[in-house]
Model the fold of this input.
Amino acid sequence: MPTKNIVTILAIETSCDETSVAILKCSGGAQRPRLDVVSNIVSSQIKLHAPYGGVVPNLAKREHQKNLPRILKLALAKADIKNPKTELDAVAVTHGPGLEPALWAGITFAGEKAQEWNLPLMGINHMEGHLITPLLENKSSIAYPALALLVSGGHTSLVLAKKLGEYKTIGETVDDAAGEAFDKVARMMNLAYPGGPLISKLARTGNRYGFSFPRPMILQKNYNFSFSGLKTAVLYTLRDLKEQKKAYTNNDIAASFEEAVIDVLILKTQRAIQEFKVKTLIVGGGVAANSRLRLRLGNMVRALEPRPLFALPEIRYTGDNAAMIGGAAYIHFLKKDFSSPNTVRASWKTLKAHATLEL
Ligand code: KG4
Ligand code: ZN
Done:
């Protein structure tokens, strides 16, 4: 354990199409950590992948490799770190889940830097990163047990947290993730990738009850989700409307689709809060930027008795970023025995990418 109370972590995230490097100054205990984000540089590859309608793994890897040195420099400069070897305490990197080639770009780069600076290297789960986002910049407090609704392009899960670092996934999607469904429906409407934010924008002025789309698995007594049937229902509706030359607006389709997704997310989340007597609802992941979801989750929580705390990340921390990886790394850093510097440093050689890593 470093003698000082502040732990400075450099974190790297390359699991998908954002290259990101962050530096955090962390203090406090593992359950009420103080996570100050000193720098968090995020470089998006969206323009590169947009023509393909999704992320191309090997293109993503090459772009991460090309950008990492420059982004690291920016992150260090913004944090005013001149001598990483003495000013940093650890290097953290996402080791899964994600696109394997993309993950490797970050892991290899992080390993080289940890070695050069003689620092411990920590492999961090991307979803734990999303889970801690409400704690960044000390915006939320969490009482336990907490329930996390994690909604991203690759995941839709409900995770119980007995405390930070101790998780149990109680439900997840059996097919498409929520963000993936937004992206696929957007594509059907010829919108650009990623479609989530565009659907959300169209939905604002649409009729949420214009089309009655299914709410898959909403009545099932489990916490799993399925969005593939809903996506297909939208596809058939669009096809029929075109065939019958009926007038309709993308706004009404977007709003009705969005409401169907949110109805399912809300109902299952509410049931889990009640069944597990949850004291905090945490929300994280790219889809947590959705304004309608934020509003309706807030309303749902406020109507509950007893009312749980509601821990929502700032919009800028909903998408992929390295700050969240640094935050999750601190929780694990506190658990490690750093009196022997070799313990974690050994992972230079053993850290691997795990495309389907679970929490
Ligand atoms: O967490 P994230 O940045 O990357 C993954 O780990 O997958 O999530 C990206 C997903 C994309 O599917 C994107 O369309 C969706 O989040 N998303 C949204 C919104 N903003 C981003 N979905 C719905 N409404 C939004 N406002
Ligand atoms: Zn993510």
Summary: The first helix runs from residue 46 to 49. Residues 337-343 have pLDDT under 50 and may be disordered.
